[in-house]
Amino acid sequence: MPNSGAEQNSARPSKSQLRVGRLTKAHGLKGAIKVELYTDAPERRFVPGAVFSLQVPSSSDWHGKTLELIELKFYNAQPVAFFKGILDRSTAETLIKAILWIEHDPAEKSDEEDAWFDHQLVGLTVIRDGAKVGTISKIDHFPAQDLITVDTPTGDVLVPFVKAIVASVDIDAGTMTVTPPLGLFEEIADETGDAPGETSSGAE
């Protein structure tokens, strides 16, 4: 919490999946991989036998494939995953930066703080200063952060999904309240022109 063209060409997950982590670095020599967790409930998502879909560039050998978890361990508070068939460091390194998605029940409500499923967000009305500015049409996930595409009367606006901008999400009310910086949803007025009542002349 979205960089390069390769990341943007990554395989897109289905609406029935939840993003739960990103593989960051090989650990040791036996195929273990450090994980950046995107879930507050790893004990529920990262259970032995869990199968993850991989969001990777289309050029990757892992494109369209899945990983089955053997075990998730913690070393110095750092989560490290062991996957079936990943037996050495060189293989583990081919998975670095892959984003992990897991199937979930569409009726399931997330009990994790500040966590929502994509299908819950798409279609929400975006509110700024008490007024509607648009509707969420898409969520893109990148290693650095997520980007929300907001459909507005003047075109699509990309909004970083960060707490500094997304003030609140109310699924029941169907709204997302945003506090964006000036210029994100409107053009900033040109302040270089002459002040009212003044005129420019070619000579003093």
Gist of the model:
The chain has 204 residues and is mostly beta strands.
What does this structure look like?
- The chain has 2 domains: 14-103, Elongation Factor Tu (Ef-tu), domain 3; 118-178, SH3 type barrels.
- The chain is 8% helix and 39% strand.
- Residues 1-10 and 188-204 have low confidence and may be disordered.
- It has helices spanning 5-8, 42-45, 89-93, 118-121; strands at residues 17-27, 32-37, 51-55, 66-75, 78-83, 99-103, 125-128, 131-141, 146-152, 155-160, 166-170, 175-178.
- It is mainly beta and 204 residues long.
How many strands appear in the DSSP assignment? 12
**Which structural class is indicated by helix and strand composition?**
mainly beta
Superfamily (CATH H level) name of the largest domain: RimM
In percent, how much strand structure appears in the residues?
Answer: 35-45%
Shape: elongated
Rg over C-alpha atoms, rounded to the nearest angstrom: 22 Å
Profile the largest sheet: 6 strands, antiparallel, barrel
Number of helices: 4
Report the uncertain regions. 1-10, 188-204
In the CATH hierarchy, the architecture of the largest domain is: Beta Barrel
Distance between the termini: 55 Å
Fill in the CATH topology of the largest domain.
Elongation Factor Tu (Ef-tu), domain 3
What level of helicity do the residues show?
under 10%
Write the H/E string, N to C. Answer: HEEHEEEHEHEEEEEE
Main sheet strand line-up: 1-2-5-4-3-6
CATH class of the largest domain: Mainly Beta
Average predicted local confidence, pLDDT: 80
Taken together, the total number of domains comes to: 2
